Amino acid sequence: LLAYPLTQKETITMDVFGNYDEVAAAMNYGEDEDDEAERTLWSMDWEEADKVWKYVYPTTIVVKQKPDAIFLLIQCECEWDEEHGIQIVFKNGEEYIEVGLQHSNY
After folding, report:
1. Which of 13, 30, 52, 92 has its Cα between 20 and 30 A from that of 78?
2. What's the pTM value of the predicted model, to 2 decimals?
3. How far is CA 60 from CA 21, 34, 63, 76, 80, in A?
Protein backbone atom coordinates (compact mmCIF):
# COMPACT_ATOMS: atom_id res chain seq x y z
CA LEU A 1 0.00 0.00 0.00
CA LEU A 2 2.88 2.38 0.57
CA ALA A 3 3.61 2.70 -3.16
CA TYR A 4 0.17 4.11 -3.99
CA PRO A 5 -0.61 7.83 -4.26
CA LEU A 6 -1.69 9.46 -1.04
CA THR A 7 -5.25 9.93 -2.27
CA GLN A 8 -5.59 6.21 -2.95
CA LYS A 9 -4.10 5.34 0.44
CA GLU A 10 -6.57 7.70 2.08
CA THR A 11 -9.46 6.11 0.18
CA ILE A 12 -8.42 2.63 1.31
CA THR A 13 -7.98 3.84 4.90
CA MET A 14 -11.44 5.41 4.88
CA ASP A 15 -12.96 2.19 3.51
CA VAL A 16 -11.19 0.03 6.12
CA PHE A 17 -12.32 2.44 8.83
CA GLY A 18 -15.85 2.35 7.38
CA ASN A 19 -15.86 -1.42 7.80
CA TYR A 20 -14.70 -0.99 11.40
CA ASP A 21 -17.35 1.66 12.04
CA GLU A 22 -20.17 -0.51 10.65
CA VAL A 23 -19.18 -3.44 12.87
CA ALA A 24 -18.79 -1.22 15.94
CA ALA A 25 -22.24 0.28 15.38
CA ALA A 26 -23.88 -3.08 14.71
CA MET A 27 -22.33 -4.68 17.79
CA ASN A 28 -22.96 -1.62 19.96
CA TYR A 29 -19.36 -1.52 21.17
CA GLY A 30 -17.86 1.60 22.63
CA GLU A 31 -16.78 3.39 25.75
CA ASP A 32 -18.68 1.02 28.06
CA GLU A 33 -16.05 -1.69 27.56
CA ASP A 34 -14.32 -2.76 30.79
CA ASP A 35 -10.93 -3.57 29.29
CA GLU A 36 -8.70 -0.57 28.41
CA ALA A 37 -7.47 -2.18 25.16
CA GLU A 38 -11.04 -2.93 24.11
CA ARG A 39 -12.12 0.60 24.99
CA THR A 40 -9.26 2.00 22.87
CA LEU A 41 -10.22 -0.23 19.93
CA TRP A 42 -13.90 0.65 20.06
CA SER A 43 -13.54 4.38 20.68
CA MET A 44 -11.87 5.45 17.42
CA ASP A 45 -13.64 8.08 15.35
CA TRP A 46 -13.34 9.33 11.77
CA GLU A 47 -10.82 12.03 12.72
CA GLU A 48 -8.33 9.32 13.67
CA ALA A 49 -9.19 6.82 10.94
CA ASP A 50 -5.51 6.16 10.16
CA LYS A 51 -5.17 4.45 13.57
CA VAL A 52 -7.35 1.60 12.27
CA TRP A 53 -4.23 0.01 10.72
CA LYS A 54 -2.96 -0.88 14.23
CA TYR A 55 -5.75 -3.49 14.31
CA VAL A 56 -5.30 -4.98 10.80
CA TYR A 57 -3.00 -7.95 10.12
CA PRO A 58 -2.42 -9.06 6.51
CA THR A 59 -2.34 -12.85 6.35
CA THR A 60 -2.68 -13.97 2.72
CA ILE A 61 -2.26 -12.58 -0.77
CA VAL A 62 -4.42 -14.25 -3.41
CA VAL A 63 -4.07 -13.69 -7.15
CA LYS A 64 -7.11 -14.60 -9.26
CA GLN A 65 -6.98 -14.49 -13.02
CA LYS A 66 -10.19 -13.80 -14.93
CA PRO A 67 -10.53 -13.50 -18.71
CA ASP A 68 -10.58 -9.68 -18.56
CA ALA A 69 -8.42 -8.92 -15.49
CA ILE A 70 -6.20 -10.16 -12.71
CA PHE A 71 -7.40 -9.51 -9.17
CA LEU A 72 -5.08 -9.14 -6.21
CA LEU A 73 -6.77 -9.86 -2.88
CA ILE A 74 -4.99 -8.93 0.33
CA GLN A 75 -6.74 -10.91 3.04
CA CYS A 76 -6.41 -9.59 6.57
CA GLU A 77 -7.43 -10.45 10.08
CA CYS A 78 -8.80 -7.51 12.03
CA GLU A 79 -9.55 -7.16 15.71
CA TRP A 80 -13.07 -5.80 15.22
CA ASP A 81 -14.25 -8.78 13.12
CA GLU A 82 -12.18 -11.80 14.09
CA GLU A 83 -14.67 -14.20 12.51
CA HIS A 84 -14.75 -12.74 9.00
CA GLY A 85 -11.75 -10.47 8.60
CA ILE A 86 -11.45 -8.14 5.61
CA GLN A 87 -9.86 -8.19 2.21
CA ILE A 88 -8.57 -5.35 0.09
CA VAL A 89 -9.08 -5.90 -3.64
CA PHE A 90 -7.06 -4.49 -6.55
CA LYS A 91 -7.66 -5.02 -10.26
CA ASN A 92 -4.60 -5.62 -12.45
CA GLY A 93 -2.39 -4.82 -9.46
CA GLU A 94 -3.06 -1.08 -9.61
CA GLU A 95 -6.73 -0.14 -9.54
CA TYR A 96 -8.20 -0.22 -6.05
CA ILE A 97 -11.64 -1.87 -6.10
CA GLU A 98 -12.94 -2.29 -2.53
CA VAL A 99 -12.59 -3.40 1.06
CA GLY A 100 -14.95 -6.24 1.88
CA LEU A 101 -15.28 -9.45 3.79
CA GLN A 102 -12.72 -12.14 3.09
CA HIS A 103 -13.75 -14.61 0.42
CA SER A 104 -15.87 -12.18 -1.59
CA ASN A 105 -16.50 -13.39 -5.11
CA TYR A 106 -13.66 -12.40 -7.41
Report:
1. 92
2. 0.82
3. 23, 32, 10, 7, 18
